């Protein structure tokens, strides 16, 4: 049986195209998002100093409720946090976070993080007493200023 060279060439082109199509969407699967805070921001268990951080799913294959927080270049892991799924009415093309304003002298607390284009986001889990206190604080939703998926900023400044 003779194999036509044209079939081999077409097969290689299709395989090559599929490989690069999957690779181009890799950040969407782990929801890697860069977020810059212009003030300290509380997350469960600690306060992040003002700066830029990468939020992403710890294991996109089995657990969509574990979020990791890294420094801006992804070389230092600051936290691995448990979340629960949370819904919003309409997804946007931007990163969206919800924070609780804790008041005088205390940093705002990060409550929720939504990846661009998704209705389901991640609600951070705080100890029950702290969660009750945060529920009483003024809550604010902040939408990022631009839509670049892996490099989006949800900046507190000006929002």
Quick tags:
10 strands; alpha+beta; 40% strand
Task: Tell me the strand percentage band.
Answer: 35-45%
Number of strand elements: 10
Number of domains: 1
Largest sheet: 10 strands, mixed
In DSSP terms, counting alpha (H) and pi (I) runs of 4 or more, how many helices? 3
Order of helices and strands: HHEEEEEEEEEHE
Name the structural class.
alpha+beta
What's the overall geometry?
Answer: globular
Helix content: 10-25%
Mind telling me the C-alpha Rg? 20 Å
Distance between the terminal alpha carbons, to the nearest Å?
Answer: 68 Å
Overall pLDDT metric: 75
Low-confidence stretches: 5-26, 145-159
Explain how this protein is built.
The protein contains three helices and ten strands; from the N terminus they run H-H-E-E-E-E-E-E-E-E-E-H-E. It is an alpha+beta fold and 159 residues long. Strands 1, 2, 3, 4, 5, 6, 7, 8, 9 and 10 form a ten-stranded mixed beta sheet that branches. The termini are far apart. A hairpin with a 5-residue loop joins strand 5 and strand 6. It is globular, with a radius of gyration of 20 Å.
Element layout with pairings:
Layout: H1 5-24, H2 26-30, E1 33-37, E2 41-43, E3 46-48, E4 51-59, E5 63-71, E6 77-87, E7 96-101, E8 108-114, E9 120-124, H3 128-136, E10 138-143
Parallel strand pairs: 2-8
Antiparallel strand pairs: 1-4, 2-3, 4-5, 5-6, 6-9, 7-8, 7-10, 8-9
TL;DR?
With 159 residues, the protein is of the alpha+beta class. The protein has three helices and ten strands.
């Amino acid at each position: 049986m003779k194999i036509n060279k044209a079939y081999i060439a077409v097969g290689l082109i299709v395989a090559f195209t599929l490989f690069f199509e999957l690779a181009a969407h890799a950040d969407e699967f782990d929801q890697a998002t860069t977020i810059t805070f212009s003030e300290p921001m509380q997350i469960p268990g600690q306060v992040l100093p003002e700066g830029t951080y990468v939020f992403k799913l710890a294991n996109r294959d089995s657990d969509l409720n574990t979020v990791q927080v890294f420094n801006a270049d992804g070389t230092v892991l600051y936290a691995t946090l448990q979340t629960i799924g949370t819904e919003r009415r309409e997804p946007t093309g931007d990163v969206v976070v919800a924070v609780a304003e804790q008041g005088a002298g205390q940093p705002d607390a990060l409550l929720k993080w939504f990846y661009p284009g998704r209705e389901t986001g991640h609600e951070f889990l705080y100890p029950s007493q702290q969660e009750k206190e945060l529920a009483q604080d003024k809550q604010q939703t902040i939408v990022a200023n631009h839509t670049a998926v892996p490099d989006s900023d949800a900046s507190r400044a000006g929002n």
